[in-house]
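Slide 14.
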Amino acid sequence: MGGRNGHKKGGKSKKKRGNKSGSRPRLRFKYGDRVLCSAYDDFELGTVVRLWYDTEIDEDGVFQLGKPGLVVPYQILMDDGNLVFAPEDHDGYIRQSDAPPMPIEH
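Slide 15: predicted structure.
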């Protein structure tokens, strides 16, 4: 992958779930889209309610209230009322759904 002006960046980079800063890739889903999210051994219906969500969870998996944490592509309001997040924009975590839209309170 090239850096600014197409020049290759030095050093090796490790791909991590989430993104703390820097450029963000284009997402497949937008606010309000109905999606299927990985939940245990199945996929459940939900609605995208936030893009580039700051989880306040550090790289060790510890919740740090009020401190920046891993930024993930989506926060999803599941039809059962639970809020979850998708750590990557990948079909293994989040998929397109043909379900009709649900109203979202702002």
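Speaker note: Residues 61 and 70 are 9 Å apart (CA to CA).
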